[in-house]
């Protein structure tokens, strides 16, 4: 709109100046033309009257006066007859005696033989007149015939001309104004449309198209603008797509990602980073990195990456977690633009590494113990004990026990590894009552007179989708564990439906477990009473196998125990797992 105003005002100024120059020039030329034409006209009238005067040849004063008055009235002019001495013989405009006119310019020039027409101020009539004078001769008269007309008449004609010019100028100005408005709109409309389109694009509307009928420069500009918009839209769509993909990658990453600029201000980060920083609800973009992160490992990684322009990895602690920080420089053409930092929470990884180390250590120890025993008895037999049937028989029985223990340990390790892989391809409806009966029958020989099993089968239990071998292994480990740690009393087994869960409960009246050990009893090879466990032939993996089977079917396990009163394990396996 401002552009349209500027162009319109420019047009207006040019039009006003042009009209003023044209008006002045036209009026000036018109005034000169009317003045010249008037002088020429009155000079011709004077010449005609001179010829009439010479043809009539008056010789009396009355005849002079009659001629002057008659033609003065006929032509509406003042007529003066002057002799060669400058005396006025007759004047139509004055009856008084007039002063000598010999010094009047038009009279002097006419007496010299010129035909004169000029304008000057009349002291007699006290106004400006246009005078036309010619020399005349008749009879014995030699003098001047002069016609004079007040300039007021010429000025009236000039005023009429001025009025006509003013009206014409106003009319032309209005027409020019309308034309200027039209041309201003015609010229600025495409430019304004391009401007508005640019504003819409700046607001993010890349579907803007300029439609114009222009074929010249503005038309080419509009076409180029539309092409630019199309390319810009395509580029923005690609950038938005890439940005969405990048954000999706960042969001899906478990590790925290943050980028800082050369001033150590945060440029962007993902949700995992804000969680690690314990700042889920805060906006971190633009803040100082060192005001939001407090970790020596991260600081060191960033420092090395900046100074040496290489990737650097450091491990340490941050907000109570074990972390691994990887810092990589963001390198521009000539300088480092910033640092990209990946922060990984390796707390669980370190715990798993520790558990693996413990597991390897425990497995080695558990395998080494029976193997050492077997090797010792074999060496003893080789050294001559084999010749004593009684001793050799005893040693062979021990070797058999240790071999069985070794075999059980290996089987439990393989079973635990298989369960941990969470791959079970033998899922089918399982008759739980039947499985429980098989387990009870299998373990029944281990019960004595002073140790009883309390189990009452339910009339009906809905089939449970599972691997029957896994449920059997779970029951065997729980019951076998209860039997080992209960010298006398009872072991109670409950198996039934409880809402949407399959409930399995094994309780005993055995020695119980101290409260401080309950949180660790599901760890591999953990034994509360190591001597008693080995004496009973346990591998230390039973309860760990139970826990992993429960987790395999998205179940829950709970344990309650009191020393000298007994222990109760409760397992709930959901039917909709």
From TrEMBL:
<dbReference type="InterPro" id="IPR000014">
    <property type="entry name" value="PAS"/>
</dbReference>
<dbReference type="GO" id="GO:0000155">
    <property type="term" value="F:phosphorelay sensor kinase activity"/>
</dbReference>
<dbReference type="InterPro" id="IPR050351">
    <property type="entry name" value="BphY/WalK/GraS-like"/>
</dbReference>
<dbReference type="InterPro" id="IPR035965">
    <property type="entry name" value="PAS-like_dom_sf"/>
</dbReference>
<dbReference type="InterPro" id="IPR036097">
    <property type="entry name" value="HisK_dim/P_sf"/>
</dbReference>
<keyword id="KW-0472">Membrane</keyword>
<feature type="transmembrane region" description="Helical">
    <location>
        <begin position="7"/>
        <end position="27"/>
    </location>
</feature>
<keyword id="KW-0418">Kinase</keyword>
<dbReference type="GO" id="GO:0005886">
    <property type="term" value="C:plasma membrane"/>
</dbReference>
<feature type="transmembrane region" description="Helical">
    <location>
        <begin position="161"/>
        <end position="183"/>
    </location>
</feature>
<dbReference type="InterPro" id="IPR003661">
    <property type="entry name" value="HisK_dim/P_dom"/>
</dbReference>
<dbReference type="Pfam" id="PF00672">
    <property type="entry name" value="HAMP"/>
</dbReference>
<dbReference type="InterPro" id="IPR013767">
    <property type="entry name" value="PAS_fold"/>
</dbReference>
<feature type="domain" description="Histidine kinase">
    <location>
        <begin position="362"/>
        <end position="577"/>
    </location>
</feature>
<dbReference type="Pfam" id="PF02518">
    <property type="entry name" value="HATPase_c"/>
</dbReference>
<dbReference type="GO" id="GO:0045121">
    <property type="term" value="C:membrane raft"/>
</dbReference>
<keyword id="KW-0067">ATP-binding</keyword>
<feature type="domain" description="PAS">
    <location>
        <begin position="242"/>
        <end position="317"/>
    </location>
</feature>
<dbReference type="InterPro" id="IPR005467">
    <property type="entry name" value="His_kinase_dom"/>
</dbReference>
<dbReference type="GO" id="GO:0005524">
    <property type="term" value="F:ATP binding"/>
</dbReference>
<feature type="domain" description="HAMP">
    <location>
        <begin position="185"/>
        <end position="237"/>
    </location>
</feature>
<keyword id="KW-0812">Transmembrane</keyword>
<keyword id="KW-1133">Transmembrane helix</keyword>
<dbReference type="InterPro" id="IPR004358">
    <property type="entry name" value="Sig_transdc_His_kin-like_C"/>
</dbReference>
<dbReference type="InterPro" id="IPR003660">
    <property type="entry name" value="HAMP_dom"/>
</dbReference>
<dbReference type="GO" id="GO:0007234">
    <property type="term" value="P:osmosensory signaling via phosphorelay pathway"/>
</dbReference>
<dbReference type="GO" id="GO:0006355">
    <property type="term" value="P:regulation of DNA-templated transcription"/>
</dbReference>
<dbReference type="InterPro" id="IPR036890">
    <property type="entry name" value="HATPase_C_sf"/>
</dbReference>
<dbReference type="GO" id="GO:0030295">
    <property type="term" value="F:protein kinase activator activity"/>
</dbReference>
<keyword id="KW-0902">Two-component regulatory system</keyword>
<keyword id="KW-1003">Cell membrane</keyword>
<dbReference type="Pfam" id="PF00512">
    <property type="entry name" value="HisKA"/>
</dbReference>
<keyword id="KW-0547">Nucleotide-binding</keyword>
<protein>
    <recommendedName>
        <fullName>histidine kinase</fullName>
        <ecNumber>2.7.13.3</ecNumber>
    </recommendedName>
</protein>
<dbReference type="InterPro" id="IPR003594">
    <property type="entry name" value="HATPase_dom"/>
</dbReference>
<keyword id="KW-0597">Phosphoprotein</keyword>
<dbReference type="GO" id="GO:0000156">
    <property type="term" value="F:phosphorelay response regulator activity"/>
</dbReference>
<keyword id="KW-0808">Transferase</keyword>
<dbReference type="Pfam" id="PF00989">
    <property type="entry name" value="PAS"/>
</dbReference>
């Amino acid at each position: 709109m401002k552009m349209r105003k500027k162009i319109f005002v420019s047009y207006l100024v040019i039009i006003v100046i042009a009209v003023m120059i044209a008006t002045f020039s036209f009026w000036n030329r018109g005034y000169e033309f009317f003045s010249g034409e008037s002088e020429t006209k009155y000079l011709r009238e004077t010449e005609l009257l001179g010829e009439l005067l010479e043809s009539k040849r008056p010789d009396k004063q009355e005849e002079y006066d009659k001629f002057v008055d008659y033609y003065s009235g006929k032509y509406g002019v003042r007529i003066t007859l002057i002799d060669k001495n400058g005396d006025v013989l007759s004047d139509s405009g004055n009856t008084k005696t007039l002063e000598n006119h010999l010094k009047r310019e038009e009279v002097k020039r006419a007496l010299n033989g010129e035909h004169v027409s000029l304008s000057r101020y009349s002291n007699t009539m006290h106004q400006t007149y246009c005078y036309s004078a010619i020399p005349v001769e008749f009879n014995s008269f030699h003098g001047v015939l002069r016609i004079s007309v007040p300039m007021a008449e010429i000025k009236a004609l000039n005023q009429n001309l001025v009025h006509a010019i003013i009206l014409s100028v106003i009319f032309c100005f209005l027409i020019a104004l309308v034309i200027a408005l039209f041309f201003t709109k015609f010229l600025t409309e495409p430019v304004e449309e391009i401007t508005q389109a640019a504003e819409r694009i700046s607001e993010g509307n890349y579907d803007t198209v300029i439609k114009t009928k222009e074929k010249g420069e503005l038309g080419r500009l509009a076409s180029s603008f539309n092409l630019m918009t199309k390319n810009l839209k395509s580029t923005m769509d690609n950038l938005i797509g890439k940005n969405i993909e990048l954000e999706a990658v960042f969001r899906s990453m478990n590790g925290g990602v943050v980028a800082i600029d050369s001033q150590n201000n945060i440029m962007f980060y993902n949700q995992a980073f804000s969680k690690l920083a314990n700042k889920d609800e805060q906006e971190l973009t633009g803040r100082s990195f060192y005001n939001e992160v407090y970790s020596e490992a991260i600081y060191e990684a960033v420092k090395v990456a900046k100074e040496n322009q290489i990737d650097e990895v450091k491990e340490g602690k941050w907000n109570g977690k074990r972390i691994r920080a990887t810092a990589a420089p963001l390198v521009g053409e000539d300088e480092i633009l910033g640092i990209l930092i990946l922060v990984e929470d390796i707390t669980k990884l370190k715990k798993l590494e520790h558990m693996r180390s413990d597991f390897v250590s425990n497995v080695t120890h558990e395998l080494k113990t029976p193997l050492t025993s077997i090797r010792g008895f074999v060496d003893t037999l080789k050294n001559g004990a084999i010749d004593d049937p009684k001793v050799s028989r005893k040693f062979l029985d021990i070797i058999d026990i240790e071999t069985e223990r070794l075999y059980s340990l290996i089987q439990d390790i393989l079973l635990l590894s298989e369960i941990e892989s969470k791959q079970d391809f033998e899922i089918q409806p399982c008759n739980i009552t039947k499985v429980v009966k098989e387990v009870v029958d299998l373990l029944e020989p281990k019960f004595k007179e002073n140790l009883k099993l309390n189990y009452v089968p339910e009339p009906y239990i809905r089939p449970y989708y599972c691997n029957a071998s896994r449920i059997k292994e779970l029951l065997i480990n729980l019951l076998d564990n209860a039997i080992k740690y209960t010298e006398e009393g009872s072991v109670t087994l409950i198996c039934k439906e409880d809402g949407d869960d399959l409930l399995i409960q094994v309780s005993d009246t055995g020695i119980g477990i101290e409260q401080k050990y309950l949180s660790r009893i599901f760890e591999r090879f953990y034994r509360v009473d190591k001597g008693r466990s080995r004496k009973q032939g346990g591998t230390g993996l039973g309860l760990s196998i139970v826990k992993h089977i429960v987790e395999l079917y998205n179940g829950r396990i709970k344990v309650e125990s009191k020393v000298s009163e007994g222990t109760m394990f409760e397992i709930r396996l959901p039917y909709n797992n």
